[in-house]
Amino acid sequence: MAGRLLLRGCSAAALQLRRTAVVRAGHRAMASAGGIPTDEEQATGLERATMEALKQGKDPYSILKPKHYTGTKEDPHIVPSIGNKRLVGCLCEEDNTAIVWFWLHEGEAQRCPSCGSHYKLIHHDLPH
């Protein structure tokens, strides 16, 4: 019985040593390669396409805060769309609770029917 306990204790210690050796070998491999890989090195697929677009200064999924436009005919509010028309809601006054909805079509800038603010639809390509 004592021999079995000793044998089991030895096999458990040997198993622990093997695990430690594997972890250390993996640690040395990572350290020789330069450490932990960055997010850019690990990213694949759609995440990688999004990161590359952000590096180039593009905003593929409207992640960034939109630029402020004055809403005049010369500087209309830009509305991105993957189609040729889009439904737009305009809050004509800052404290207004009613939204004025209208269809915005591709082409020249169009005015809000209530306040006269200008909006322009531009085509937006998704990165995938």
UniProtKB/TrEMBL annotation:
Residues carrying N6-acetyllysine: K67, K85, K120
GO CC annotation: mitochondrial inner membrane; mitochondrion; respiratory chain complex IV
Keyword check for Nucleotide-binding: no
GO biological processes: mitochondrial electron transport, cytochrome c to oxygen
Keywords assigned: Acetylation, Membrane, Metal-binding, Mitochondrion, Mitochondrion inner membrane, Transit peptide, Zinc
GO MF annotations in UniProt: metal ion binding
Protein's UniProt keywords contain Nucleotide-binding: no
Subcellular location: Mitochondrion inner membrane
Organism: Oryzias latipes (Japanese rice fish)
One Pfam family per UniProt: COX5B
Protein origin, superkingdom: Eukaryota
Protein name: Cytochrome c oxidase subunit 5B, mitochondrial
Residues engaged in binding Zn(2+): C90, C92, C112, C115
